[in-house]
Inverse folding.
């Protein structure tokens, strides 16, 4: 059973050296530890897109982790936007195969 705390959704667009460095796997592990739902995927412009659903406090921790990224990444910026909660994403997953 879910806690009574309100779940919100955010989308993050991460730019820098974030593809080919394990960023999607890093995000998946971090989201799993925080109990977030959503997805991470590479975008054709070289950025990584993350959609995450969870409690506001956990999303703040997640954003800090995304700003750091895995050891081999070089994050230049993390743009954040409020999104509608999509209950389809109960778990966090990697989308796309490239």
């Amino acid at each position: 059973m879910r806690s009574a705390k309100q779940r919100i959704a955010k989308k993050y667009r991460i730019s820098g050296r974030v593809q080919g460095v394990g960023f999607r796997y890093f995000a998946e592990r971090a989201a799993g530890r925080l109990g977030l739902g959503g997805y991470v995927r590479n975008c054709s412009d070289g950025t990584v897109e993350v959609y995450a659903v969870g409690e506001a406090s956990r999303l703040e921790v997640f954003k800090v982790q995304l700003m750091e990224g895995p050891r081999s990444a070089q994050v230049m910026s993390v743009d954040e936007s409020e999104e509608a909660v999509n209950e389809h994403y109960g778990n966090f997953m990697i989308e796309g195969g490239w």
Summary: The chain has one domain: 7-86. The longest helix spans residues 56-68. The chain is about 25% helix and 40% strand.
